[in-house]
Amino acid sequence: MNEEIRALEPKPLWNKFADLNAVPRPSKKEERVIEFIKNFGNDLGLETEVDEVGNVIIRKPATPGMENKKAVVLQSHLDMVHQKNSDSNFDFENQGIEMYVDGDWVRANGTTLGADNGLGVATMMAILESKEIEHPALEALFTIDEETGMTGAMGLKPGLLKGDILLNLDTEEDNEIGIGCAGGVDITASGTYTEEPVPEDSIAYRVQVKGLQGGHSGMDIIKGLGNANKLMNRILFGGYENFGMRISEINGGGLRNAIPRESEAVVVVEKIQKEDFTAEIGKAIQQIKQEYKTLEPKLLIEVSETEAPQKVMELGAQELFLKSIYAAHNGVYRMSPDIEGLVETSNNVARVTVKNGKIEVLCLTRSSVDSSKTDLANSLRAGFELAGFEVELSGAYPGWAPNMDSPILKVLDELYRKMNTDEPDIAACHAGLECGILGKNYPEMDMISFGPTIRGAHSPDERASISSAQKYWSFVLEVLKNIPEKK
C-alpha cells in the first residue's frame, strides 16, 4: 500500500515519510523512533546525539560556498497523535501507518496519518541525506512528546544548540508563515462517588454519540464542531431531570488535544418510564442533529436497550457531575482583539470517564495571552471545585509572542511572494508550537514556522495534500539557499 506513496513527488520527502510511518511513535512511547532517528544520523556519518530527555540532534556542515551563512536549526517533533475509528482494530504500538492516495490527498486507513509532524521530520531527514541540496550549517532538532506535554522542548537545555535561526516545520497551511502561537495548560478534575444498586424494575440503555469530525483542539476549535462529551452530557442531563435516569458509566473522548468524536454511556430508567423516555430522548436527538446538520452531517446518536449493570451513581453526586460538565466552557472563550480572526483563548472538554466510583474530566485550555489562559483555567477550576472535584492544573507551557521585525520573516515573506501568485498569510496560530518554549532558553534565536497543507489533524480524517507538499518542498529549498550571511 505504501509503495504508491513512495512514487509521489518529491520522492525524497515522501520516501522518508514512508520510512518514518513504518515506525510506531506514540507520544510518551518514542523509544523506537528515537533509536530510528539516531541510527539514521549515525549511518550518514553525521554528528548525532540524544539528550537526556530523548531529543535527537543531528548536525551537518554547510555545503561548499555556504559556510558564511548563519547556522540554521531545523525542528520538528517525532511523536504523533494516535486516534482511530471505533471499528478499527489497528494497533498503534506495533503497526506502521497504512497509507493510500485519494486524489490530491494522502490518507491513512481508519487512523491518524502522522503528517503532523511527520512531514516535517521527513523533510529534515531528506535534507540531511541529500548530497545535492545547498544549505548553511544545520542542526536538525527532533523533539519528543510535543502532543501530550511538550516535555522534549521543555527539557532541551540552553547552550546545546548553536544555530542563529530556527525553522519550525509544524504549520498546516502552505500559504501561512507562523510568527506566534498559543500557550496551554492541562486541567484535570477528579472525583469519587458512592455506587448504589440498580433500582428495581429498571431498564438499561446504551447511549452512543459518534460520527463527529473531531480534529485539532487548537486549530479547529474556531469551527464550532460538535464535542461528543458535551453532547452526551446534554442528553443525560435531560434524561435525569425529566425521568430520574441514573448513570452507570461513561466513556467519552480521548486525548486532550483532540476534539472528542465519540462517547458512550450506560444508563437506567424505571420501566414505567420507558415509552416517555425513549420518545423524549428521540426528540432531543433530532434537535441536536438539526442544530449540527451543516457542521456535522455524519453525527449519529443511538439509544439501544442493553444488559442491566450492577451499580449506578448515587443521585447527589450524579446531579453535581452533570451540572459541572454543563457549566464547563467548551470552545472559543475569547477572540484576539489585535489579530483579526485569531482565537485568543479556548478550552476543549477532551475526556470524561465515569466508572467504578471514580470520575475524571480532562481539559486543555489554550491562549496566546497568559492572563486570559489563567482566567479561563480558574473559571473551569471554580466550577469543578464547587461540584466537589479535586482539580489539578499541570503541564503549562508558554505561548510564542509575534516579532514583526524578525529578519527571517522578511526572507520568507519575500521568497513566498516571488515564488507564488498569492501573498503569504503571516499569522499567529491557536495551537501549541514548541517555539515559545524553545525561545525561553534561546531568546536570541530568530524563529519562524511553516509547512505543507494538512487537514483534519488529530483525527482519522487527517490528510496531507500532495500538490502542497511539492510547493512546500520547493519553498524549503529556496529558504535554505537564501539564509542571510553572518555579521
From TrEMBL:
Its cofactor is Co(2+); Zn(2+). Residues 209-293 form the Peptidase M20 dimerisation domain. It is an enzyme of class 3 (hydrolase). It catalyses: Hydrolysis of dipeptides, preferentially hydrophobic dipeptides including prolyl amino acids. This is Cytosol non-specific dipeptidase. GO terms for biological process: proteolysis. The lineage of its organism: Bacteria, Pseudomonadati, Bacteroidota, Flavobacteriia, Flavobacteriales. InterPro entries: Peptidase_M20 (IPR002933), Peptidase_M20_dimer (IPR011650), Peptidase_M20C (IPR001160). GO terms for molecular function: metal ion binding; metallodipeptidase activity.
